[in-house]
Specification:
There is one protein chain. The protein is mostly helical. 69% of the residues lie in helices and 0% in strands. The protein contains 13 helices and no strands.
Length: 243
């Protein structure tokens, strides 16, 4: 394409090439494509292109280039929430939670609209790494800022509690997810674990209360409820349309 005078590549062309090189592990060629990508960025494409560059350099594992792009991005009149989401996500791709936390604090200091999807990136990372106290604290902090946690945030917390066998805490987080977002549908394995825990302790009333909450909030029908019971008993014969 470069040698054909009638075909001119744009930033997206080099983005695709860089992406494929990274997937193939051809790092030197990937870097060449990334540099050429930068050379094709215009004012019109600057915002989306820089967010893409952050993620690509993170995938390459190059933190120096990641911060270089971020610093050049800061020269814009205003960095929006999307830019911080891309940077925090990129740092987490490099397994640098501490740097991601610092970037989150910078985001808060800028006084932008408190968009829950920004802290939610950290919440999910905390849950994946069993930092459940931090995850819960950040949810509380976001609520104090007037931001409503998403059902996915509560679900991540519930899944994290399940990983460390804190089933009662998982149940409470699941209930909050349902109450915050009626109609939200968690995966059947998590529901089964919560109900199995309650029934295993002989707490039939709480199990039924939990099921009734799910039914009231239209999470599943009575028929699906019976299938869930079957799943709990280990028969695993439910269909893909359980929920």
């Amino acid at each position: 394409m470069e040698s054909d005078g009638e075909v001119v590549g744009d930033w997206n062309t080099y983005c695709v090439a860089a992406d494929r090189c990274l997937k193939a592990g051809i790092m030197e060629m990937a870097m060449t494509m990334l540099k050429k990508l930068e050379g094709q960025i215009t004012e019109k494409t600057k915002s989306i292109a820089f967010d893409t560059l952050l993620k690509l350099y993170a995938r390459k594992g190059n933190k120096d280039e990641l911060y270089r792009i971020w610093k050049s991005d800061e020269k814009r009149d205003k960095i929006y929430n999307k830019g911080y989401m891309s940077m925090i996500s990129s740092l987490l791709m490099l397994d640098d939670i501490e740097a991601a936390e610092m970037m989150f604090k910078e985001w808060e200091s800028r006084g932008l609209s408190y968009y829950f999807r920004v802290p939610n990136i950290l919440i999910n990372a905390y849950c994946r790494n069993n930092l459940l106290e931090k995850a819960g604290s950040l949810i509380d902090h976001a609520m104090m800022k007037g931001s409503e946690p998403s059902a996915d945030a509560w679900y991540s917390l519930a899944s994290g509690y399940l990983e460390v066998n804190q089933i009662p805490m998982a149940k409470e987080a699941m209930k909050k997810a349902i109450l915050v977002c009626p109609g939200w549908k968690p995966i059947k394995e998590t529901l089964a674990s919560c109900l199995d825990h309650l029934e295993g302790k002989g707490d039939q009333n709480k199990a039924e209360e939990f099921i009734e909450l799910l039914r009231t909030e239209n999470v599943f029908s009575p028929v699906a409820h019976n299938r869930l019971r079957t799943y709990i008993k280990g028969l695993k014969s439910q269909s893909d349309g359980l929920l």
